[in-house]
């Protein structure tokens, strides 16, 4: 494969994945509004298109057309930079996620993954940790006390929960013996449901910690204190309007999707079928290639469903409770999990 | 291809470092330092140290610099005042720095023509790294962990005596 | 070579900046420069230990940043300034 071909293919893959991700973001928003509506015994958006399916398009058009207000007191360069950082980081981290069986492809070229990196997991962690700057700078440069409070809360929260998040993943990494996302998935693919890390791998504690930490990392309820509207108006993006606000919004949902992808890859067996080899693979090669994607999307979807469910059910934490919870319970639990997993592996 | 990438990110790195010095506002300096660190991470990747590249991004750009910006925002540090600075630092300092740079450069360039550090493939995998780290260098590793524990305790103790609002986050 | 330049810039920053936080950032810059040269040498001579040394430097730098920033906060509480010229009294 020549250099040019490689570039063209990569460009194509990047374009496709970005478009799919953005559409996914739009419909995750719709999913959330519909579901929360149902949970609260109302309909959710239902006017635009059948079942409100065109609502995301209209929302997008609305935020494009709205007036873009830049308050006079903001610190301009950072104010403009912050949403770009937030959205950019949210979109980049999807690049190392394998969506389907990476063996599909030719000449060592993976069709369903933008790049197969040896340290894929670390790349995702690193990029999410850079995403903090989007929030922090947005709050600081807005020159507004609510924004500043929101972003201070959010930076502290992200740093605290990143530890628990990282440590909860160590058990999985130890079981797979690699940081490569593809190898991690393949290590749990032998018997379907039974060998997924969450069940057969005995990593359900890790999964629980990951779930909590991921909610906190993406600023979602019950840990959505940085944007607690009852006390901080809208938190760090109070001063943002129009497209810049939409960028933060999209970044939040793109992060949710990424977190869902990582959970799927690490705990739920990635693209592999939950039935293992019980169901024989169909002969058709196209179906063979597309079935993994179907499973992957289904798993990510159920993770997002859980997200929304939790949001509709649980009340918000208080900030000191949040910190206590992170440092006193999640972190020791994660360390215990690491010790337990390594003992188990050594015993085996 | 490697060479092009090297030059791009080396230039980015230097630009960030110079910008760090020229900016008067600490938060701009912090941001340019982040640029330096991420481009250094790319250079590490080019040099085949992929685990270190990730660690650089996570530890430095993700944790240390977040702490920096956090503190800058917390203290709301304003623009730097133009003070005269000590004259001795100007007179002696700059020639000394220049001489030092020259010295370092000659030493580095003499050592096996490192000026053109070869960009061949040769990725150090995480396995190799951890194998050495946890067998030969286990004692330094443990000592470092004790050091970090002490640092945490020290940081908490230093900030605690007030109303301790930061000790919760440290 | 790049690392030498970076290190020198760090030294310059250490000397000319008047803000405590920026001075601290210059120190980080110097550490990073040293790290770069370590990685380069490790790559050149195919030695893994160089990289491990960088790892240690990172850990120490993280610890140092935590303590240093704690000190800066303590100083700021006591003096309400971050200019290094103003912090010249040994007593509160």
Task: Give me the secondary-structure topology.
The complex is a heterotrimer of chains A (348), B (170) and C (92).
Chain A: H1 3-39, H2 55-65, H3 76-92, E1 105-106, E2 109-110, H4 120-141, H5 145-176, H6 181-187, H7 204-217, H8 229-232, H9 242-267, H10 285-313, H11 319-347
Antiparallel strand pairs in A: 1-2
Chain B: H1 2-22, H2 26-46, H3 50-75, H4 87-110, H5 126-135, H6 138-160
Chain C: H1 2-16, H2 20-44, H3 48-79
Helix pairs in contact in C: 1-2, 2-3
What does this 3D model show about the protein?
The complex is a heterotrimer of chains A (348), B (170) and C (92). Chain A is an all-alpha fold. Chain A has one domain (66-347). Chain A has 11 helices and 2 strands. Chain A has a two-stranded antiparallel sheet with strand order 1-2. In chain A, helix 1 crosses helix 2 (55-65), helix 1 packs across helix 10 and helix 4 packs antiparallel against helix 5. The longest helix of chain A is centred in the first third of the chain and has 37 residues, at 3-39. In chain A, 47% of the residues are buried. Chain B has 170 residues and is an all-alpha fold. Chain B has a domain at 1-80: Four Helix Bundle (Hemerythrin (Met), subunit A) (Up-down Bundle), CATH 1.20.120.1200. Helix content of chain B is 74%, strand content 0%. Chain B contains 6 helices and no strands. Chain B has helices spanning 2-22, 26-46, 50-75, 87-110, 126-135, 138-160. In chain B, helix 1 (2-22) runs antiparallel to helix 2 (26-46) and helix 2 runs antiparallel to helix 3. The longest helix of chain B has 26 residues, at 50-75. Chain C has a single domain (2-79), classed as Helix Hairpins (Orthogonal Bundle), CATH 1.10.287.3510. Helices cover 78% and strands 0% of the residues of chain C. Chain C is built from 3 helices and no strands. In chain C, helix 1 packs antiparallel against helix 2 (20-44). The longest helix of chain C has 32 residues, at 48-79. The N and C termini of chain C lie far apart (44 Å). In chain C, 51% of the residues are buried. Classes of the chains: A mainly alpha (348), B mainly alpha (170), C mainly alpha (92). Chains in contact: A-B, B-C. The interface between B and C is large, with 78 and 64 residues.
């Amino acid at each position: 494969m020549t250099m040019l071909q490689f570039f063209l293919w990569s460009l194509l893959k990047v374009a496709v994945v970005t478009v799919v991700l953005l559409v996914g973001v739009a419909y995750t928003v719709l999913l959330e509004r519909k579901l929360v509506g149902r949970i609260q015994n109302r309909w959710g958006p239902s006017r635009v298109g059948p079942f409100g399916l065109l609502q995301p398009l209209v929302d997008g058009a609305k935020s494009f057309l709205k007036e873009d207000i830049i308050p006079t007191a903001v610190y301009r360069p950072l104010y403009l930079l912050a949403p770009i950082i937030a959205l950019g980081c949210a979109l980049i981290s999807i690049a190392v996620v394998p969506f389907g069986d990476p063996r599909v492809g030719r000449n060592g070229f993976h069709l369903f993954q933008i790049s197969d990196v040896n340290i894929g997991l670390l790349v995702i962690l690193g990029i999410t940790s850079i995403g903090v700057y989007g929030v922090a700078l947005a709050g600081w440069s807005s020159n507004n006390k609510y924004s500043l409070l929101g972003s201070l809360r959010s930076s502290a929260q992200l740093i605290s929960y990143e530890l628990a998040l990282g440590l909860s993943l160590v058990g999985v990494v130890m079981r797979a013996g690699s940081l490569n996302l593809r190898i991690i998935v393949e290590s749990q693919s032998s018997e379907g449901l039974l060998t997924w890390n969450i069940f057969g791998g005995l990593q359900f504690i890790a999964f629980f910690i990951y779930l909590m930490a991921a909610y906190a990392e993406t600023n979602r309820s019950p840990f959505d204190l940085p944007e607690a509207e009852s006390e901080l108006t809208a938190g760090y993006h109070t001063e943002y309007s129009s497209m810049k606000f939409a960028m933060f919004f999209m970044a939040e949902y793109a992060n949710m999707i990424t977190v869902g992808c990582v959970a799927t890859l690490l705990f739920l067996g990635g693209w592999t079928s939950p039935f293992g080899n019980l169901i024989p693979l169909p002969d058709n090669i196209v179906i063979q290639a597309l079935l993994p994607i179907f499973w992957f999307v289904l798993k990510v979807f159920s993770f997002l469903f859980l997200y929304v469910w939790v949001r509709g059910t649980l009340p918000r934490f208080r900030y000191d409770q949040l910190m206590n919870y992170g440092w006193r319970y999640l972190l020791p639990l994660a360390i215990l999990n690491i010790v337990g997993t390594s003992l188990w592996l050594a015993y085996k | 291809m490697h060479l092009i990438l090297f030059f791009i990110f080396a230039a980015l790195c230097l630009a960030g470092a110079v910008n760090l010095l020229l900016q008067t506002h600490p938060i701009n300096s912090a941001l340019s330092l982040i640029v330096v660190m991420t481009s250094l991470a790319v250079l590490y990747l080019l040099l085949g140290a992929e685990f270190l590249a990730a660690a650089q991004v996570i530890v430095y750009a993700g944790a240390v610099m977040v702490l920096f910006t956090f503190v800058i925002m917390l203290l709301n540090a304003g623009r730097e005042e133009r003070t005269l600075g000590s004259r001795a630092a100007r007179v002696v300092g700059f020639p000394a720095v220049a001489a030092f740079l020259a010295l370092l450069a000659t030493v580095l360039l003499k050592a096996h023509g490192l000026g053109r550090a070869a960009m061949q493939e040769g990725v150090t995998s995480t396995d190799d790294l951890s194998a050495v780290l946890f067998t030969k260098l286990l004692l330094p590793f443990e000592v470092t962990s004790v050091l970090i524990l002490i640092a945490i305790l020290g940081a908490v103790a230093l900030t605690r005596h007030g109303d301790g609002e930061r000790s919760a986050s440290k | 070579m790049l690392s030498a330049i970076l290190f020198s810039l760090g030294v310059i920053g250490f000397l000319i900046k008047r803000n405590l936080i920026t001075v601290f950032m210059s120190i980080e810059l110097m550490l990073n420069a040293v790290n770069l040269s370590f990685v380069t040498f490790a790559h050149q001579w195919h030695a893994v230990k160089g990289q491990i040394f960088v790892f240690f430097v990172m850990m120490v730098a993280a610890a140092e940043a935590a303590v240093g920033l704690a000190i800066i906060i303590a100083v700021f509480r006591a003096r309400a300034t971050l200019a290094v010229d103003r912090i010249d009294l040994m007593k509160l």
